[in-house]
Amino acid sequence: MSESEARATLERLIEGNKRFRSGQTTPQPWHEAHSRPQNPRAIILGCSDSRVPVEMIFDQGPGDLFVIRVAGNIVAPSQVGSVEFAVEQFNVPLVLVLGHSNCGAIDATMAQIKSTELDPLGHLGAIVDRIAPSIQDLMEGADHLDKDELVHRCMRANVRASVNQLRHGSRLLETRLEAQSLMVLGAEYELATGEVNLI
User: Fold this and answer.
1) CA–CA distance from 155 to each of 100, 111, 149 (Å)?
2) CB of 188 within 8 A of CB of 6?
3) What is the C-alpha to C-alpha distance for residues 35 and 165, in angstroms, rounded to an integer?
4) Closest CA to 81 of 165, 186, 170
5) What is the distance between the alpha carbons of residues 44 and 133, in angstroms, rounded to a whole number?
6) Cα distance between residue 137 and residue 73, in whole Å
7) Do β-strands 42-46 and 196-198 pair in parallel, antiparallel, or remain unpaired?
8) What's residue 75's pLDDT?
9) Alpha-carbon distance 33 to 61, whole Å?
10) Which of 29, 57, 147, 162 could form a disulfide with 97 if both were Cys (CB 3.0 to 4.6 A apart)?
11) CB contact at 8 A, 109 and 157
């Protein structure tokens, strides 16, 4: 795989998103998924939000994408391992970290940063703890921003942090990146319009 194949894959996703937004999606044989080989061309690390159906928003079918979903599209060891598996097993050339507007995990993290309570979140705290470092500085200097703009900036900062963790948190991924056989990028999905844009 090469960087040109990664760019071609990215273009395929962008074109699929255009079809999704225009209502011109391709009928997908999901009922045949069990008989189709798995040959993903992209790994999508996205949020668990039920309003972000990854295959649908990119108009892709069974076997086309290796999708990893976790609240806040965070990067923890299990997510890194899942990305490594798909890169090594299927020689996938593109990893896309996909954040989205109105993310509940970002809201929860912002609320926790402002809170004086200690660990009221239970296991959700493990997600908040991974998001907080990427948005703490933004929140401290954001008195001039309205809440929607601040949430948007925090979401983008969190995506960038996840991209950085994937680029520098795995020997396998670093080797592929250095060889230019892998690209790791960030993107955002706008719930109101259905549009995906690179960050």
Assistant:
1) 7, 14, 10
2) no
3) 35
4) 170
5) 23
6) 20
7) unpaired
8) 97
9) 9
10) 162
11) no
